[in-house]
Amino acid sequence: MCNLLPAGVLVQTPHSMVHVFVKMCFYYMWFSVSSALSILNDHLDCNQEGIRCSSKIVNCSDEQERVPRSLAPTGPEWALEYVGVAEDENGLLPVINVSWSLEADGGISYIQGLKAHLLEENTAQTLCVWYNFTIPSQLNPRLGKWTFSLDGVVVDPGHTYSISVFNLPEPDLEHYRLTKQITVPRCDDWRIQQAQLCLENGSTWDPQMTVSVSWKAGSLAATVCFNTSQFSDGYTVAVQSAVYQDSKNVSKGKSTWLNVTFEMDIRNHIQISPKCELLFVVRPFFPGCKNKCLSAQKKWENCPYDSKQPWALLIFATLALSMAGCISYSHWKSSHKASSTPSPPEPTPDAAEVAKRKTVLLIYSPDHPLYTVVVLKLCSFLMAQCGTDVVLDLLDLTRLGQLGGLRWLDWHRERIERSPSDKILILCSPGVQAKWRAMCGAEPVVLREDLRSPVGDMLSPALGLIVPGLVRSGSLRRYIVAYFADVCSEEDIPAPFNVAVRYKLMEQFEEVLLRILEVEKQQPGRVNLVQGVGQHEYSLCPSGEALRGAVEAFRAHQQKNPRWFQDELVQDEADGDVGSDAGRTLETRTLDIHA
Predict the structure, then answer these.
(1) Residues 54-77: pLDDT tens digits?
(2) Less crowded by CB within 10 Å, the N or C end of the chain?
(3) What Gene Ontology molecular function terms does this protein carry (predicted)?
(4) Phi and psi angles of residue 84, each rounded to the nearest 5 degrees, phi first
(5) Distances in Å between the alpha carbon of 98 and those of 34, 50, 102, 163?
(6) Is the pTM value of this prediction over 0.70?
(7) DSSP single-letter state for residue 140
């Protein structure tokens, strides 16, 4: 178990405040690669007309002789730089070339060579090259400045490099070093797009994705067409809405394009979305990025609510009448209560604050389709019974598709941190503990539900964003750590979350709700209680009954399948074929979360 905390965490003990300065045990990688600095073999020759020059890679920590400033040569000046690709036996590689020239002044006679120092700023890797030569004259045979270069340095897309060049020997006071930074573009830039590394990350894939949808007698048939890539054999094609999800794994074979068809009976699954909004996603599996490759997405929003679909009109009319009835009843109840009881006093500031709807960002692991249903039912209970707004990836697919998973998480996290009262609720389960250990260096963890989802793994980037804030002094009030005691255990809570209070659901749900409302349970002269949310009361309302039913269904599955979590882990590509589970996914995901 990983017991490390982020750098600079302030830990309070009964006798003192101790600064614990340790390194985070994970470094979350988002579509990036890193390799040791190197130079292509045939790019170290520095000979040129007029001088004999030799160059070699040396240890950057070697000390160089220093001389009085009056005997030291002046510094060089930059010439050209190049970012592109170069070829070796493994294909095209992303490289940088940089050149510089010597000042044509009297100090040139003191030059006994020069040194180039390269620093990769993301990983602090270094590379140094020593050039050994003697300059016979101020100008070269072509009457131009003497020019040298560092060519064929193999680099990584998206990384920044710092290059320093200086003549030898250096002065004993100050220096004449020349320094510049070069940021290598990402793989979508035309300069390195053809590098083998980028090709294996899908840099040239142009899916030209199209979606065609047809309706017939209440059924929907959606066909997704897209171009394949030379470097990706397998693809996951998915369709998803707020409470509906289906996916298919396909292999391209020898085809340059594929089409995948989904068929749905909308009369049975009208709750796809109030706007009939569907998100179609094509996820490739390139050898470079594997499960983190960029996806192609298209949103479809075009429900035919006309006279040909009387069932749709009937459902919406029924919903409208139900809402009108609820509103009328609320008004009657309020007026009746007002006539039979004296007017309450003006609310205190604390009561006014509680009256505002709170927002909760819910972080969870999709361990199993049945557990995902439990999460959805909990959201319904929080919204319907507790008057709380809930932010969940499955309920915000439109914005999620526009921003992408990491930006969506960061956007909501920043909104909650700016709010004085909103919270982040972390539901711990075996998947949360497994993903955290994987981020700490254990074996990588891929769940079947991650492959079914069009946005992939959302938990790992979420942990990377929220753990530093969770363990930061003064930020604990924003975070609530909980787990469903009937289907999970306290062992599923990662070590960094031990700094917070851990709540059992639904036994301690009342305490969780009071935390969300920011109301102390014990106050001078009174004890605050919340009606209808206790362990034996929450299931008396429709949303609570649905939540209890979902928990019991998942618990029954666990009892019949003791190794259920191991069965949900994807061990290899063959095991990742989730097409056969589409029926089970459809059955569990199309439940109405507001039932």
Answers:
(1) 999 998 887 777 888 878 888 899
(2) N
(3) interleukin-17 receptor activity
(4) -170, -145
(5) 21, 21, 14, 9
(6) no
(7) -
